[in-house]
């Protein structure tokens, strides 16, 4: 992916720790952003649809993030959850140089 004017810069790559998440507010929406072990970033809604848990505080294995409140796992690829608690929105994210960008929301 290449950055165009439409992408939104949200922060620096150095602000993220591999395997951990951080919440950013973009256009009034809370987004959980994760740096994976391969250097890519993934972004999903930061609030669990079940009981509002903070997904950025959840554990990730690179394919899912697990809500720290009730252990529901959400796929980082499409936001789906195997349990019937709803899904989270996934946002296209990328790294360009030392900066993190999201596609427009």
Q: Briefly, what is this?
A:
With 105 residues, the chain is mainly β. It has strands at residues 8-12, 21-26, 29-35, 41-45, 59-60, 64-66, 73-75, 90-91, 93-96, 99-102. It holds the Pfam family Rieske.
CATH class: Mainly Beta
CATH architecture: 3-layer Sandwich
For the termini, the CA-CA separation is 17 Å
Q: Report the radius of gyration as a whole number of Å.
A: 13 Å
Strand order, sheet with most strands: 2-3-4-8
Q: How many domains would you count in the coordinates?
A: 1
Question: Which fold does the CATH topology refer to?
Answer: Rieske Iron-sulfur Protein
Can you lay out the helices and strands and say which pair or pack?
Layout: E1 8-12, E2 21-26, E3 29-35, E4 41-45, E5 59-60, E6 64-66, E7 73-75, E8 90-91, E9 93-96, E10 99-102
Antiparallel strand pairs: 1-10, 2-3, 3-4, 4-8, 5-6, 6-7, 9-10
Domain Rieske: 8-102
Keywords: 2Fe-2S, Iron, Iron-sulfur, Metal-binding
GO molecular function: 2 iron, 2 sulfur cluster binding; metal ion binding; monooxygenase activity; oxidoreductase activity, acting on paired donors, with incorporation or reduction of molecular oxygen
